[in-house]
Amino acid sequence: MIAYYGYTISPNQMETVEGFLICRNVPIARTGEMEYLESELKLEGDCSKVVKVYRSPEEVFSKEALSSFEGKPVTEEHPPDLLTPDTYSIYAKGHAQNVRRGEGKWKEHVVADLHIQDESLIKAIQEGKREISCGYECSYTDNGDGSYSQHHIRGNHIAVVMRGRAGKQVAILDSKKKVETVKQPERKEKMKKNHLFFKLFAKAAKDASAEELETLAADAADVMEEAADQGTEVEKKEEEKKEGKENQDASSLDSKLDMILQLLGKKEELEQDKDPLDSLIENLTEGKAATTEAKVVPAEEKDQAACVADKAILVEIVKQIRPVIAKIKDSADRKAVTDSLISYITSGEVNEMEKIVQTTKENMAHAKDATSHIDLDACQKAYDAMNPHKNGGKKE
Fold this sequence. Notes:
By secondary structure, the protein is α+β, with helices and mostly antiparallel strands. The chain contains 14 helices and eleven strands. Strands 1, 2, 3, 4, 5, 6, 7, 8, 9, 10 and 11 form an eleven-stranded mixed β-sheet that branches. Helix 5 (195-204) crosses helix 12. The longest helix is centred in the middle third of the chain and has 32 residues, at 210-241.
């Protein structure tokens, strides 16, 4: 999953903490017919003659064409010639990323995310300069009817212009109204990684009955209490390992999940023939989401960004949380939490975390109160009375 960290200022635009502008889902090119001067095709003929040029989907969406635009410079208007390393610094004001074929309404368009770092171009875009025109190399064939077809399209740069050849739809999306400056909120307290564990149980318990919730919450309480009882000693060891390094507090927070993992045992596996978490890890590792729309990690939730912005971190979280899930006694509850983890990771949800944590803690407290009044000795005696191995073979 591709994720950009910053402040959403419109559905398809965001601002980074540095003030850079990211324009997401920008249609940068399209298929179909377009008009060129014959001289632009570098053909002999009348320099004022207009000819139609056809761009087929096979050429526009070829693997070579799409990948040739990946990472290429964004310019304001076209430079006099195709860019080279010698001229890059003169004209480049940003770059293109996540180049792919569009979907739905945009299925006949090449779509990309444009990262703009230049202040003057950011201002121009905010004031209404939105249309896009790509600079590229290609070859032409004569269709025999006065029109031509493009082949072997290879991108060089992407220009932000007042008027583009491909039309008004090939442009940076959202209103041309100048956006307001986004106020950056105060930084929140660091979020502990075990909040993810609470999140999973909250989602799993959403539609559970009172009895199911009691069992699920009790299991969660057992896991977290066991960690709390021995946490001080483990935290001390972790801090000693990190002694002398900068950002020691952050390292300690990152080691919380490792501490729980150590307490619960590293070699326990989920009791399933095919663990769905394996597929999740494979998907994260393969990077299949690179051709899809990028997500925005809200900078207003700085502490939560680390949970979703880096796929490598997500893979480690999945691997490390598995033994914790395996500790859940009831198979249905264990499946519910597994499904919640998969849903959480793949959707990138990190909303109302504190509220969910608080609610889950309260549910766990209620469940503990309910179980504290149970006469365990009486329960054990009742069980023994029904157990043929302990009651001399009598059947109740």
